[in-house]
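Input set for joint prediction.
Command: fold jointly, output tokens.
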Amino acid sequence: MLSERRLEVLRAIVQDYVGTEEPVGSKALTERHHLGVSPATVRNDMAALEEEGFIAQPHTSAGRIPTDKGYRLFVDRLAGVKPLSSPERRAIQNFLDDAVDLDDVVARTVRLLAQLTRQVAVVQYPSLTRSTVRHVELLSLAPARLMLVVITDTGRVEQRHVDCPAPFGETSLADLRARLNSRVAGRRFSDVPLLVQDLPESFEQEDRGTVSSVLATLLETLVEETEERLMIGGTANLTRFGHDFPLVIRPVLEALEEQVVLLKLLGEAKDSGMTVRIGHENAHEGLNSTSVVSVGYGSGGEAVAKLGVVGPTRMDYPGTMGAVRAVARYVGQILAES
Amino acid sequence: MLSERRLEVLRAIVQDYVGTEEPVGSKALTERHHLGVSPATVRNDMAALEEEGFIAQPHTSAGRIPTDKGYRLFVDRLAGVKPLSSPERRAIQNFLDDAVDLDDVVARTVRLLAQLTRQVAVVQYPSLTRSTVRHVELLSLAPARLMLVVITDTGRVEQRHVDCPAPFGETSLADLRARLNSRVAGRRFSDVPLLVQDLPESFEQEDRGTVSSVLATLLETLVEETEERLMIGGTANLTRFGHDFPLVIRPVLEALEEQVVLLKLLGEAKDSGMTVRIGHENAHEGLNSTSVVSVGYGSGGEAVAKLGVVGPTRMDYPGTMGAVRAVARYVGQILAES
DNA sequence: TCCTGGCACTCACCGGTCGTGAGTGCCAGC
DNA sequence: GCTGGCACTCACGACCGGTGAGTGCCAGGA
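tokens >
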């Protein structure tokens, strides 16, 4: 088992390395942190920490840098979550309060996260499946062509065309619109299929085809939009990544462009509480030299989507975690209000 | 005036430099291109071209590289637009045909452009001001709360809440909906303000307040959405930019994050035909080492928005221009069909 | 007048050598 | 179990000379 002081040494190494980006040696450590022991003692501790795999040396006769395992221990046992200062909190709130619609909320959130953490920010749009239907609207575009609009409680709007097998009168349209809304308004998207399945039967023979088409399109919208969208920002922060450039950031940029990869990444994170994935803990190879800090957010108590940041494993974990958590809270509030 | 052969030499220099990314010397030039003259002659021509500012040497006793002015001459007088191969054309069409909605069209276009040109792609969403209104829908959410939905001919949907000064009956709602649509459906967004200004007067006194609120919101949507959105992709291609990394791509990434900058960039381009801005011709400082190739696209004969790519000044202009033009055409077709 | 071959010159690049210093491991003593 | 001392390692930067691609210039020929 690692003694208390060795953990302290590890913490000091992580902090110094995060600050300077350079391998940290025993002498510098004792000078910057008052550990109360000599460099020689620290050297012994370092040897032990290296033995256990928490730190490593890039070359013989260089200082040590933390390994993924070292960061993991640091995050789990040594680091708290650094709360934001109150001016920061106020700035967040003001900035988000000005948002005019859902797109704007998401866009502002991305900017905010990227600026606060000086890293790449990723924000998932509130998911359709977990949110509820506010309203379904049907419009007639042409005699045998309808438009279906679905509005969710998070302010998202989806729209689809429906080609009808037969002309559909205004009366029937109003009827269908009313019945559809009375069944699904306020209900969760995931419950919709069950709620509408017997709807065609209650219509005249001649209209059933059209009603079925509308329902099919509605359900299809549901399925398609389960592939969620997301927005990223702050990629310019990647340039502060390290010295050995292109090789590191190339795969990261590629991964960030693959929405599928990112969605999977966020999907793997815990639904509640904050998740930190460090280096090789990330399944995707391109992200092996990055850490991902993510957390769910939502309008009520329940998380409807996730947001987070992607940065070098050598990041300021307490600060990043604090910023991510705070932003998620405020976004949740904003969504609840609107 | 530059002789025919000197122009030929410039063309050869641009082509070789684009291919190899290395300064090109007189000997290599005569070997790769059958110019019919000796290296010594080419050297004289090069000296003249340098004198005129079309090429430069990074150091004494190195080959020459084209300057921005050299690329400009190349693009204007020496390079054609390389048409895509027919398999490429088919691939584009197939890929775009599968798009399900406007977001998807834009997203696919970005991917396509980025892949074809191996550069950063930028696609502007079809603009509301230049497109027409397909339908306006009004829904009652609560006794004194309405939702306004605007649907454009390019498939874009915008939605806003309206708080009414007084309760608004279903009959009045249907009435307003009908009158609103009869006036604006099929009209350009920019014409809407004039078309609706006298609408409140034709309603009962008690409803006028609400009608005015609805119209105000409608016009506000118009103004807000004149700030257009855009989508970018292919940023990973920036890693192929050059050897001297962070210093070059940092400002480019920053510029790309500023939608305002990009919109201005696209806005400065000609409305019809293709625009190529080379290096320092770009107003934004961060893009001084890049070239931007852009073109308008639209569903009819008229351009409703622009798309383009951002890449190093040392890019394959004929190929890039060909790809950009072809993609713009197909996107226009797709939009016209939907 | 324009092109060509020849020639001397420049200078970035590459590989090797060497001194410096931060950092280490080990050990004997407190 | 901590400490000071000591020998060792090795990345890094500076220096240096050889190599070769490339240049500018010039005199001679079509």
